[in-house]
Write a structure and sequence with these properties.
The chain has 151 residues and is α+β, with helices and mostly antiparallel strands. It has six helices and four strands, in the order H-H-H-E-E-H-E-E-H-H. It has a four-stranded antiparallel β-sheet with strand order 1-2-4-3, covered by helices on one side.
Amino acid sequence: MVVPDTRSTWPFAAALRSATVMASPFTVALVTRWIEDGTADTLLRFIRNETTARQKLVAEILPRGIYKADPLSFNIWVDLPSLWNRAAFVEHMRSTGIGVVASDAFTTDGTPPEAVRVCLGGPITRPRLVAGLEYMAHALEESPALVSAFL
């Protein structure tokens, strides 16, 4: 293609991208095969079993009432005790391998609550998740000053 001038290049490129954006034919073929041969159902069952198992670990380790969860989710929402602020808690949890994100990223209006979203998924193994959740439970039961003394 030849565009009339340099200035026309950007709108033309944007129009071309929007007209040709599509799923990769390889990906479509792979997913179609997985649906037809039952692999997709097997993967879905595995994922649902894993989310259920990880949510069960949360229920066994974290103090009741401090978090909100969905049994089919790889995330929980933790309302922090009054002694913690979200930035300090995120920093405290950084070394655990568990993804912890301050509520700021999920707030669109007003002041974010002192809360965090905790990711239970990703490449972390169940034993490492258990260790991280135990570390978190300890932190949630103590003041930041006392917890930092144990690092």
